[in-house]
Design a protein that fits this description.
Structural class: mainly alpha
Oligomer: single chain
Strand content: under 5%
Distance between the termini: 14 Å
Number of strands: 0
Mean pLDDT: 92
Shape: flat
Low-confidence stretches: none
Radius of gyration: 14 Å
Number of helices: 3
Largest sheet: none
Number of domains: 1
Order of helices and strands: HHH
Helix content: 40-55%
């Protein structure tokens, strides 16, 4: 976070988790010693004031969507995915 503020009603946790997974994936594509284990705290749960349950849900969905992307994206799929994340941004 650039500054301390509540991100409880945003999808920032999902976006941060996705960015972390993408950075690890890029690292593993170009380095001989890949990252195999990652310890990740509850993103946004401290100064971001995201409830633990919401943070865990957003992190899990980002993980699932990163490793198992859909073959195609339709409006119903996009709406279902957005509703599952449960936040729309600030």
């Amino acid at each position: 976070m650039r500054v301390q503020m509540s991100i409880a009603t945003t999808d920032n946790v999902s976006q941060a988790m996705w960015a972390m997974l993408l950075a690890i994936w890029h690292h593993n594509q170009s380095h001989p010693q890949p990252i195999r284990i990652v310890a990740c705290p509850g993103l946004g749960t401290a100064t971001g004031q995201v409830p633990f349950e919401r943070a865990a849900k957003q992190m899990a969905l980002a993980y699932k969507n990163f490793w198992h992307p859909p073959d195609s994206i339709s409006w119903p799929y996009a709406i279902t995915r957005q509703n599952a994340i449960g936040a729309g941004g600030d």
